[in-house]
């Protein structure tokens, strides 16, 4: 199977994500939350489907503003499940709302989502999965692995000979510390 570094760079949608986002460290709460939401919604679908719907997700979840999403009730759930621009899966929508509430709680317990990740780094993939399953919803091994690789907490997003890898290393991902 070809590596993302082999197929993504020349693709009009995958290329920009591969070159400027995938594997770069994230610290901003909304960016981390967005990445978690996108990874959850990718389950069972192609990453291209998710990237093509990214703008619709951003609009539907109000820029991934954690406090706004955490406050969603039945009216917002119904709105999301009726929104053809996003992936209308009840379990995924429920997980996003629940996980926004968890991220909000992480502010009190750890100083935020980024600080929570930093407090638990480094862990093995298996230990990260256990931690995410105890903390969040809809976070199996593949979702957790992709979330952590895409946000700089686990290596493997790029091949060592990929030109993007040098830029990621210069950005100081957690896995390289």
UniProtKB/TrEMBL annotation:
UniProt-annotated binding residues for Zn(2+): 5, 18
Protein name: DNA-3-methyladenine glycosylase I
GO BP of this protein: base-excision repair
Cited InterPro entries: Adenine_glyco (IPR005019), DNA-3mA_glycosylase (IPR052891), DNA_glycosylase (IPR011257)
Lineage of the organism: Bacteria, Pseudomonadati, Pseudomonadota, Gammaproteobacteria, Oceanospirillales
Keyword check for Zinc: yes
GO molecular function: DNA-3-methyladenine glycosylase activity; metal ion binding
Gene3D superfamilies: Hypothetical protein, domain 2
UniProt KW keywords: Metal-binding, Zinc
Recorded name of the encoding gene: tag
């Amino acid at each position: 199977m070809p590596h993302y570094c082999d197929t993504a760079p020349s693709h009009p949608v995958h290329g920009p994500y591969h070159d400027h986002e995938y594997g770069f460290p994230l610290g901003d709460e909304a960016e981390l939350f967005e990445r978690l939401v996108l990874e959850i919604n990718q389950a069972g679908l192609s990453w291209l489907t998710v990237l093509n719907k990214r703008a619709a997700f951003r609009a539907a979840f109000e820029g991934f503003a954690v406090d706004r999403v955490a406050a969603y009730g039945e009216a917002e759930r119904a709105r999301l499940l009726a929104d053809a621009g996003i992936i209308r899966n009840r379990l995924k929508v429920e997980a996003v709302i629940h996980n926004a509430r968890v991220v909000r709680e992480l502010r009190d317990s750890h100083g935020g989502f980024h600080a929570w990740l930093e407090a638990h780094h480094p862990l093995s993939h298996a230990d990260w999965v256990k931690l995410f399953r105890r903390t969040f919803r809809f976070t199996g091994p593949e979702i957790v692995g992709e979330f952590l690789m895409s946000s700089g907490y686990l290596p493997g997003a790029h091949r060592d000979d990929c030109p993007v890898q040098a830029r990621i290393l210069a950005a100081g991902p957690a896995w390289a510390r």
